[in-house]
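batch job 7 of whatever, protein = Carboxymethylenebutenolidase homolog
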Amino acid sequence: MANESRPCPCDIGDRFDYGGRGQEVQVEHIEAYVCKPASTDKAVIVIHDIFGWQLPNTRYMADMLAANGYIAICPDFFAGKEPWKPSDDWSKFDDWLKTRDARKINKEADAVLKYLKEQCGAKKLGVVGFCWGGVAVRHLMMTYPELKAGVSLYGLVKDSDDISNLLNPTFFIFAEKDDFIPLHQVTLLEQKLKKNCKVDYKVKIYPGQTHGFVHRKREDINPQDKPYIEEGRKDMINWLNKYV
């Protein structure tokens, strides 16, 4: 279970020293980071974790998707509210989180989808998200039929959550040694999906990995983790390639 003195569903891991290859743009009431390949009508919305849309790690992932042929956009789904900082008072985290509900982002999603379609010529759309963003992905995949594929990476799961009403194929990535997402909750999620979900889905647990491993671990630090970090990233891209 999560340490009560640090009730955080996303540890900071490694903060990449990375500047990004895209640009920041204004999308109606929010800012966003966009990275575009030469020419494509495929786009992926990248949803940040609690540390916000400007975190270099998340931009690194957006650029990786762009390098694989997608317009990648990472909007500020906090809509101008401050992201969490590792130096903040963890005793206030729960109150902070209540003001940033990952299931109340439709206004931002509407703006981003309109921008992708009208300004970028996107016709095929997908979404990926990390931790807080993983929860947001689940919400969007039950709300927007135009999102043809979703990848939810270590989004916090509650026993009461039921996400069987997915509209399109969704891939769920979890870490075996995640301090914040007990494996019994992953098992329960899988049971609910197996019983009720009417679209393609996949739930995968990566051995020996901890929360945030796909975007928060530098693959060159622990050699034993590198294969799983690379596998998680490859699996994410392969899922998008299959359905978007």
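notes: The domain at 23-243 is CATH 3.40.50.1820 (Rossmann fold).
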